[in-house]
Specification:
Elements lengths: L6 E6 L3 H12 L1 H8 L3 E7 L15 E2 L2 H5 L6 E4 L7 H10 L3 E4 L2 H17 L4 E2 L11 H7 L5 E7 L2 H12 L4 H10 L8 H4 L2 H15 L9 E2 L7 H9 L2 E11 L5 E12 L11 E8 L3 E8 L3 H20 L14 E2 L6 E11 L4 H11 L4 E9 L2 E8 L2 E2 H13 L3 E10 L3
Parallel strand pairs: 1-2, 1-4, 2-3, 4-5, 5-6, 8-10, 10-13, 10-18
Antiparallel strand pairs: 7-9, 7-11, 9-10, 11-12, 14-16, 14-17, 14-18, 15-16
Helix pairs in contact: 1-12, 4-5, 5-10, 7-8, 13-14
The structure holds NADPH dihydro-nicotinamide-adenine-dinucleotide phosphate and ligand LTNE7NMQ.
């Protein structure tokens, strides 16, 4: 039976994502009411610049006083799409304390303060949902939290940042420059307010922290995630990757140790074989592999950024939270998490592609090979190209720990025949 009194929604932020949330709430109002069992009403929209023309948003709903909006006391659900840590964190906390549940797309905040926010939500018997915080439109949080709750997830690996995938794809497929591709991603609404978060890997690291926490039922914070961005990836790296039958992607990889007592989470550019499904993920699309004991390997794929795709995930959460509200219930919380150790990057085992500038003279290869052997790093292939007394030496290793590889590189730098380490890239997905 349809309830006639509407559920009231406060929208905090009306930018790329918020404007699409408002549009869908209006255009799909009847369908949403049907699915929820009550109409939903946009009760207020908090922004920074009230004078800006916002199509479809009645001016009387617009306010710059987000605090007063969440304190009104008659708001059922606050949708936070402002981004950043403050004022978003205080607004969300205040919303719980004044009787509202919260839907957020704010991965930066959730990766940093997710545990504290969940605690406040639970103390106040309210929901905190955030499907849109990871991988845009792709349903990933709910499958991990609910569908796979009876299984044991061991690994989550994928592309979780649309902006950097867009840039790397453009650089690889059209030879576009980095800045040109970044400007296009920003104009399309994919990039964060400060795109440093995207290109330096902070956004993907926040998503990795959230994914690892939900997948392994533990707490992983942003600071626990090893992070390298993609600003150092060059056209030469793409050429080397092609010679190996690979391309380069910015990957987020979260793994549970074999004995199940610890986890690792990392974000960095990696070479992946062109035959791997992740190699064909184009533009701002994301794709995530989840490996679990019983299900085996699952792949989630779809638009990872942009206003409408992200709003789709926000609306899904809004419907779920409204239904919970009508049923007088809340969805699954996170208070039952175990405290697994988060291991350092040194313990991660993978393959490496190392490009060295060396002197082009006899014995160099043997010298370099000895250093690898002394550090217990086994070599898979070596390719040398020399010219005018200088040479470039490309070494691809078998699987080795990051700590052994770091020791190897430190020792290589001390050889007088090694002029420099041009690039080091991990090789994944084989
Ligand atoms: N863009 C995307 O593809 C995706 C974004 N997200 C996340 O969604 C959130 C929003 O992103 P996006 O829509 O792109 O960001 P935008 O920068 O486009 O929008 C931010 C909105 O917040 C408003 N705002 C900023 N500060 C305040 C404040 N102090 N009080 C009230 N309103 C404020 C802005 O107001 P005004 O309009 O007046 O400037 C604007 O409407 C972020 O957490 C982001 O990480 C998640 C997935 C994908
Ligand atoms: N800036 C982010 C937006 C979605 O999370 C991205 O590019 O993935």
């Amino acid at each position: 039976m349809m309830r006639t009194r509407p559920l009231k929604v406060a929208l905090l932020g009306c930018g790329v994502v918020g404007s699409e949330v408002a549009r869908i709430m209006t255009t799909h109002a009847d369908d949403l009411a049907q699915r929820i069992g009550a109409p939903v009403e946009l009760a207020g929209v908090a922004v920074r610049r009230p004078a800006k023309v916002r199509e479809g948003i009645p001016q009387e709903l617009v306010t710059t006083d987000a605090t007063a909006l969440v304190k009104r006391g008659d708001i059922d659900v606050v949708v936070e799409v402002i981004g950043g840590i403050e004022p978003a964190r205080t607004l969300i906390t205040t919303a719980f304390e004044h009787g509202a549940s919260v839907v957020s797309a704010n991965k930066a905040l959730l990766a940093q303060d997710g545990a504290a926010l969940h605690a406040v939500a639970e103390q106040n018997d309210k929901d905190l949902y955030y499907e849109a915080a990871v991988a845009g439109a792709i349903p990933l949080i709910r499958p991990l939290r609910e569908s796979l709750a009876g299984d044991k997830v061991n690994r989550v690996l994928g592309i979780v940042n649309g902006t950097t995938n867009f840039i790397l794809d453009k650089m690889d497929s059209t030879g576009a420059g980095y800045q040109e591709a970044l400007d296009e991603a920003t104009a399309l609404g994919y990039a964060e307010a400060d795109p440093t978060a995207d290109v330096e890997g902070f956004d993907a690291a926040a998503k990795a922290a959230i994914l690892a926490g939900i997948a392994f039922h533990t707490r992983v914070r942003l600071d626990d995630v090893y992070r390298e961005g993609m600003t150092e990836v060059t056209a030469a790296d793409f050429r080397s990757a092609k010679e190996m039958g690979c391309t380069i992607k910015l990957l987020a990889i979260c793994e549970r140790s074999k004995d199940g007592t610890s986890v690792t989470a990392r974000v960095h550019p990696a070479m992946i074989p062109l035959t791997h499904p992740l190699a064909s993920v184009r533009g701002a699309y994301n794709a995530v592999f989840v490996e679990s004991d019983a299900a085996g390997q699952l792949m989630f794929y779809g638009p990872g950024a942009g206003g409408a795709p992200t709003a789709s995930a926000v609306l899904g959460d809004l419907v779920a939270v409204c239904r919970n509200r009508l049923n007088g219930a809340t969805g699954p919380g996170e208070s039952s998490y175990a405290a697994l150790t988060v291991s350092s990057m040194g313990e991660v085992v993978t393959r490496y592609h190392i490009s060295l500038d060396v002197a082009d003279k006899p014995g160099v290869l043997a010298q370099v090979a000895t250093v690898f052997a002394e550090h217990g790093v086994s070599i898979d292939t070596v390719r040398q190209q020399g010219k005018d007394g200088e040479a470039s030496l490309v070494v691809v290793t078998h699987r080795a720990s990051d700590a052994s590889l770091s020791g190897t590189v430190e020792a290589l730098r001390k050889l007088d025949t090694v002029r420099g380490v041009a690039s080091i890239m991990r090789v994944e997905g084989e």
